[in-house]
Amino acid sequence: MLKLYDCKTAPSPRRARMLLAEKDIAHDTIQIDLRKGEQMSDAFRKVNPRCTVPALVTEDGVLTENAEIAAYLEATYPEKPMLGATPREKSLVAKWNWRCEMEGLMSIASALRNSTPAMKDRALPGPRNVAQIPELAARGLKQIGWFFEDLNAQLTENEYVAGSHYSVADITATVVVDFAAWVKVYPQESQTALLEWHEHMKTRPSYDA
User: Fold this and answer.
1) CA angle centred on 209, ends 145 and 60, rounded to 5°
2) Could you give the CA distance from residue 5 to residue 55 in angstroms, rounded to a whole number?
């Protein structure tokens, strides 16, 4: 049985949780309270020395990155493909999932981690302390707004983020939109395609996984 080290309130492990739900893969879950710093404990360091969640324990070892988890689950459970079915679909899913990560999640994380007093010296996740840079917070807020513009344009022409089929890109984009509320950035009323897509995502069982 797979074992997922999770944090119910954090965006990164939510991506793994949603993927497992979409593929209907049975697994056990262990909650790690990031607010209490449980990810820094000696016990969890033995699971993941990088002190981050998610961490998925498999018979082949511990997977600690969402890209790694998605690749493993797709190869092990190929039904309900989430990384694309054809070469073109695979390339589009990879492209848009990367953009959702780098232009979406990273922008929000930069804004949050470089401005929140509780994250002083925790500007980057992991075992090392890193000082905050306020300028990066300001840039992150601008970047997420720009990304919402681009995502709305993509969804104006496509039913899902990477084309005509639901994929991990939709999972990541869903987390981006919800995570952005943490820094008080929201899709604009004029971004109707993005707003309609997000409402549709809320109807999927994995949304509340």
Assistant:
1) 100
2) 5
- In angstroms, the CA 12 to CA 29 distance is 15
Q: Which residues contact 175 (CB under 8 A, 6 or more apart)?
A: 11, 14, 15, 18, 105
Residue 116 has pLDDT above 90, yes or no: no
Residue with tokens 């780098």: 102
Opening angle at CA 197, ends 191 and 201, nearest 5: 140
The residue with tokens 């707004």 is 145
Task: For strands 27-31 and 61-63, give the pairing.
Answer: unpaired
Rounded to 10°, the helix 192-201/134-157 angle is: 90
Long-range contacts of 200-207 (CB under 8 A, 24+ apart): 201/170, 201/174, 204/22, 204/166, 205/21, 206/17, 206/18, 206/19, 206/21, 206/22, 206/171, 207/18, 207/174
The yes-or-no verdict on residue 153 having pLDDT over 90 is yes
Distance CA 144, CA 132 (A): 19
| pTM of full prediction above 0.85 | yes
Looking at residue 133, its pLDDT comes to 93
Say what the pLDDT of residue 159 is: 98
40-58 pLDDT, tens digit each: 999 999 999 999 999 999 9
